[in-house]
């Protein structure tokens, strides 16, 4: 990777003689890619383009994903180069996996061999087929039952993600959603409407049917039972043909072991809490410390959105440069916990109007870092400011390092890690001076590093890290659930 500080639109690349003719030709190839991507996905193979899934994407979206690569490499790649690889992949009998088509093609181009059919086929055999043949990819013999307890902001986004990313349909099934009975006679219709439309994340990209006779939401063909209860001890999931489900508690009403065990008594096999857990409960940041999970863990916290955002960056920086100490300030979107207009609130300052004020408050995210990264115990302080926007937050990380560095070295390291390392699934990276918070709506990353805002002064660095505190966190939760369900997907090409 080169020229990390240069605007991608200013990078040199070959210019066609006929821009429109070139675009139409590439559009035609992108149109041919759509059914191949769809067929592979139904067979369990997810095609990516530098981390961006091509599944259910339009030809124009596929073309934009190709253009994205110019942010990383010296130039974008063309559909003329990727299509032959995709066409050959279609002919292979592959086990479930994720294949980053962009990375495969760029790595191939870096070997400076000709784009002939024999070379392409041999490369795919060496870098896709052979690694898959020796991999330990797994998935349940039957789809794992999932139950959502709560249907708020996080619950609805998890529903969207699970419905949109079912693969061949044999990984997991969202069988039920548990809610308190609403005051409206049209409770089910109102729940469906909130799932179908969202003021922040836009319309759901799928179909929703409402079966009022059976209290069902049929989302992309998946029937989801709505169960009404005030507490877990009012339910027995086997009564609804839901067997040993993984339950996702996104209410925050029960955060300790004693409270969450009620879900186990109701028939859940494992419980994932979408909030920091109390006591000695494991707080897991997917991609960082999920290796600490074992088969006996049946009560697990997915930590908080902010913890999931800052821990990956702290991990990579500490491993490379050794963090001596630091302070993290989170600039956080307001949440439903705050008031629209000044009113009583048990928390300090939180009673004041959320859309009208910046509100200084505390955050437990920094304290929770040590549960995922024990090596940073006692080295960090933190605070938070709630600001008048509905979504997307920013962590400002002031870190003092043991190992001195330069800005160029540091930014190069961040870029490489985001695009070329095993952390590329959870850490994003942007290199634009025009980026603002709304550009990160529905970002799938746990965090996105703003390279242009990065400040480096020898042993002192300041990083600005964006995160969609709703969607990005929900993706992390779903990935953790897949891990607990025994679903392991190899991503190719393999990166250290």
Give your account of this protein's structure.
The chain has 496 residues and is α/β, with parallel strands linked by helices. The chain has three domains: 8-133, no CATH class; 144-275, Rossmann fold (3-Layer(aba) Sandwich); 306-470, Dihydrodipicolinate Reductase, domain 2, CATH 3.30.360.10. Helix content is 32%, strand content 23%. It has helices at residues 19-42, 59-68, 79-90, 101-110, 117-133, 153-164, 187-196, 257-265, 305-321, 365-372, 407-420, 471-484; strands at 45-49, 52-53, 97-100, 144-149, 172-179, 208-211, 216-219, 222-228, 246-249, 270-273, 282-283, 299-301, 323-333, 359-361, 380-387, 393-405, 427-430, 447-450, 455-467, 490-492. The strands form three sheets. Strands 6-7-8-5-4-9-10-12-11 form a nine-stranded mixed beta sheet, with helices on both faces. A seven-stranded mixed beta sheet has the order 14-15-13-16-19-18-17, with helices on one face. A four-stranded mixed beta sheet has the order 2-1-3-20. Strand 18 (447-450) and strand 19 (455-467) form a beta hairpin. The radius of gyration is 23 Å and the shape is globular.
